[in-house]
Amino acid sequence: MDAAQLIRRLRPAELYGLDAVAAAVVVLVSFAGALAEPTDGRPAEPVWVSGLTALAIGLPVVVRRRWPFPVAIAVTLAASLALALEFIPSFAAPGPVGALALAFYTFGTAVRDSRAFLIVAICSFLVSAGMGGPALYAGQSLPPDGPPAFLTAIFGGLVIAPSAILGFAIGERRAQNTQRSEQLRREAAMEERLRLARELHDVIAHTMTLIVVKASIGNHVAESDPAEARDALQIIEKTGRSAMFEVRKVLDMLREDTPYAPTPGLDDLPNLVESASLGDARVTLTVDPPEGAARDAISPSLQLAVYRIVQEAVTNVVKHAAPAHCQVTVVVGPDDVRVEVSDDGKQPPRASSGGHGLIGMRERVALHGGTFSAGPRDGGGFCVTALLPVSGSAS
After folding, report:
1. Residue 395 falls inside a structural domain
2. Do both 154 and 248 map to the same domain?
3. Alpha helix segments (H runs only) across the chain
4. Which spans are transmembrane here (predicted)?
5. 394, part of any domain
6. Fewer CB within 10 Å, N or C, the chain?
7. pTM of full prediction above 0.70
8. Tens of pLDDT along 287-314?
9. Is 111 contained in some domain?
């Protein structure tokens, strides 16, 4: 058995098993104490009474985790009566002490409001009264081999209060850990929603731009050139089907029972460039190296980031700068990946009013610890540049 198995959180069945063992020990110790002869010369109670007393004190410990409040009250009453009636002499009280400590530790972990202090105080008084009450009531001095008078008066508090305080502290720590775990879960869910929103934005923005461009062309030449209009419709159909497939892959990530489909990467850039070239923009692609170990070492998340950056930049060119020539260059190095998308359009591509294109690209680069720049080129056109470290972090 390794260390991880030793410190793992026990299952409920194992916890109840330990409680059963603890209850058995308490019953045996209490029964042994009940068999002890009283020091004041009183006759010992029958053995069956000693057995019932031990069972009344120890058996509730088995279910202390399920019913902490009733168990604490039951153990308190049984221990107080056993001590008050001297079924268990004060000098033989380890059994009741163990039962009270276990019961009020669990009570403290479960009950952490104002009523807990009142219950602990009342139960402490009852146990102390059970310890010293009979002797004081009879006008006798305490047994010479028993605890001192002062300790007898606070005996219940010495047994119950530390156990309850320890349980309260551990219960608070568990509650804080649970709250912290819930907060982390909510933050992770929020990050996942943002990630999916970025994916959906990139997919839909790119494909809808191409569809609108080709639809405009088809509508313009519908009467003069039916063949070209038919080609535009075929391209719209192909682009729409591709968009449906990518959206389905993104939405499948929300289902736990759906295996993750391969995400777009460097190998999908040629198809992306080909579909973007169907409009008025002429897009060319250069990937260096075209294949090899350097490309294979790029993680899927980084490849997806490169793909989405190129997709968004090319979409902006098609949407805002066409007709234009767009050059996409991806250079894969040993330490980083450089992405550059430039065009010679008359107007710079930009995110439309309320859009998130450039913001989304900047966020993707930041998630991987890279640098991003976008701005007009000298002599006209626009250029988007991203430098992504191969070992960068991603959400």
Report:
1. no
2. no
3. 3-7, 12-34, 47-58, 68-84, 94-110, 114-137, 149-153, 155-221, 226-252, 269-276, 293-296, 300-316, 357-367
4. 15-35, 47-63, 68-85, 91-110, 117-137, 149-170
5. no
6. N
7. no
8. 988 777 677 778 888 888 898 899 888 8
9. yes
